[in-house]
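Attaching the record inline, Q. Sequence:
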Amino acid sequence: MAKQGAAGRRRRKKRSRQRTLRFYDFNLVFLVIFLVVIGLIMIFSATAYNSKDATNFFIRQVIYAVVGVAAMIGVSFIPYQLYRGLSEYGIFIAAILILLVLTPLGYSSHGATRWLKIAGDSLTIQPAEIAKIAIILFCAMVISRIGKQVKSRNGVLMLFGGAVFLSGLILIVTNNLSSALIVFLIAFCMYFIAHPRLKPFLILMGVGVAALVLLIFVVQMVGGGDSGFRITRILAWLHPEDYAGDKSFQTMQALYAIGSGGLFGKGLGSSAQKLIMPEAQNDMIFSIICEELGLFGAMVIILLFILLLYRMIYIARNVKDVFASMIAIGVFSHIAIQVVLNIAVVTNSIPNTGISLPFISAGGSSLVFLMIEVGMVLNVSRSIPYD
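Structure, as predicted:
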């Protein structure tokens, strides 16, 4: 009997260990690491025409990738319940303070002050990336707390009050419209998922489309000459050939790259447009993928992102805690928004603005904080009941 009892305990312990391992979403980990590896290859390829730049960009991105993987794994073992107390005040206030620090201590690059130096020029962070995590946790906390009252006036004010304030602060302090837009859209998507009705959003979308059409009409009527920076950017989007030597130069080169790639591309490292396209390894790296790997390679990248987002939706649907589910929805929204907007910019579907392709574009702080977000989702997945 004693032997049978000991054997039974060993079997139960073994099953317990197996269950613990199955809670961890290794599919999500594999997809993220695979995208990061593709990003490293494409960054090296996009800068390979200059051996010094290629080495510098590649080594720096490898370091950030290693830090990101370590951060992702570490965060995945920090219980998401610990975020509850920090969601409304701690992280949100910290994001505001870090943004305000940019005013006296931030440094400028490419005409914008958006970075803080941590260790010289080799280690920097963008406070806007911290703000994206802060808005995810803030919205998750608000939605889980007010429940069905999310559709009430107070619910709207609580949720979007924080989002509008944080977005406005990003825009004022950093003049970074793309990050401000992403922060607001994350909150909007989380509210859309949590709201029980669809009709208000259809009306809002209709109003938004009408406003956009009106804006385009007005810009075309009054634009030109000494128009403001953002009006000129819209005009460059509408008529890229008229601004090919200036505002839409990067966009035109990206379109040439996409068009010349064909079905299977010119081959890895064979891009011609990277020689003249500014910052090809950053926001426009998807065009280099299209040129070197063709439509087939671009579709593979898009498929990987779809699978990644599917895993996050699967986790959000199966976790029992509303707060945990909304964390997964928030990270899903962030990644989906950046992927869609980046590809839309590269294909000139929307005006050109600085939005990186998650896990693939060069950019250390963006990569690390994105992987921290994935680590949060991985931790949420560990709470899914095992049947």
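The chain has 13 helices and three strands. The chain has one domain: 20-381.

More tomorrow.
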